[in-house]
Amino acid sequence: MIFVALVTTVMTVLHVYLWYRLVAATTLRGTRARRVLTWCVVGLWGLATATLMGTRVDWLREVTSYGFLWIAVVFYLFVFLAVLEVPRALAAPVARRLDRRAAVPPDAVPMEVGAETAGARTSDAGPPSPIRAGAAPSGAALEERPDSPRDTGVISRRLFLGRTAAAVAGAGALTTVGFGVRSALGDPVIERVTVTLPRLDARLDGLTFAVVGDIHLGPLTGPDRSRRIVRMINELEADVVAIVGDMVDDTVARLGALARPFASLESRYGAYFVTGNHEYYVPNGPAEWIEELRELGIRPLRNERVEIEHGGAVLDLAGVNDVNGASYDEAPDYEAALAGRDAARTSVLLAHQPVQAVEASRYAVDLQLSGHTHGGQMAPLDLIVPLQQPVLSGLGRVGDTQVYVTRGAGFWGPPVRVGSPPEITLLRLRAPRE
């Protein structure tokens, strides 16, 4: 109920604002255009609300494919219109002054009775003017004139400002979303990162991880995208594949076919997986996906660790559940995953959310691999993510623990990425050079 209330409130506020700027400010009151556009906004509000609720309600899932694109457009319309509020505010006083001047026609300038105009006496001026000399024109008289500035000037200036802002915002939003769709649905970029770990055994120098997260298998991705991601990972020839959560957004029954290509993952020491928050949004929880991934040859690390032997040395690779696992009695257990190990060994922890490094740093974890943030996915949301997570993307640090956060290979919600292209990372460990 809290989720539904929040979604409804946010969507209502955004659509009321869009109606005010895109309909009320661009059409005349009482016209058919305003009525039609108003109902369009109401219908799109319903679509957006149903789409977000559809991520949790089975019978609404079918609308999400269409609604998420509209949500992206709504977001960027809001961004562009909000930015345009500043020039609108500056232009409004100028427009009002011009409108006031235009409201009094030139022939209504007050004159003294008996004064001569342009060499002619008022008595010779011909038929009397409907506007008496020395008197300001009445509102009724102006309203009766079809070419009066009060009829055309004020309205046209208001419409001009409103329609110009709407056109700029609309063009900006559609262009941004168009490029964002191309980025989100295109191939992930390959990021190559080298991380120097002060305690790394020299024999582990050069050990590589293919880090991928937030794949978000769903109805908009399809099996071809899964095959592309697998192909790109295999081309990296990594020693270890690390899938750091949010791999799926629905049940095995709906998405099992999309996950099958991941049975072809190749690496020297295997592929490992930890749950993300979205695995716990799947009906009945992550249990069926855990078993499905095992059958695909991917080993889940559920509050546990394994030893990676390389070059005669051993590295501890651990994994903890996402913090949302607490709702299924599967909370992250750092003690189970990290306690009792050889303190001289280098440790790498897979944990979906960067904020989990706060707890991991207490266990002397050398490197944590995470996802979850999508790098913000759609700028300027990247300005908000740091309010919740200590690292937005790339390499950071929490205490003595280094944290690498992948932007993810997929998307959630709108199939749009702006300023944060999808990625797969080849991360190479380095021992300190003397």
UniProtKB/TrEMBL annotation:
Domain of life: Bacteria
Recorded GO MF terms: metal ion binding; UDP-2,3-diacylglucosamine hydrolase activity
Membrane-spanning parts: 6-24, 36-55, 67-91
Region ranges (Disordered): 116-151
Biological process terms in GO annotation: lipid A biosynthetic process
Cellular component GO terms held in the UniProt record: membrane
Gene3D superfamilies hit by this protein: 3.60.21.10
Annotated Calcineurin-like phosphoesterase domain residues: 208-375
Keyword flag Transmembrane helix: yes
One Pfam family hit: Metallophos
Keywords: Hydrolase, Membrane, Metal-binding, Transmembrane, Transmembrane helix
Protein name, per record: Calcineurin-like phosphoesterase domain-containing protein
Origin species: Thermostaphylospora chromogena
Organism lineage string: Bacteria, Bacillati, Actinomycetota, Actinomycetes, Streptosporangiales
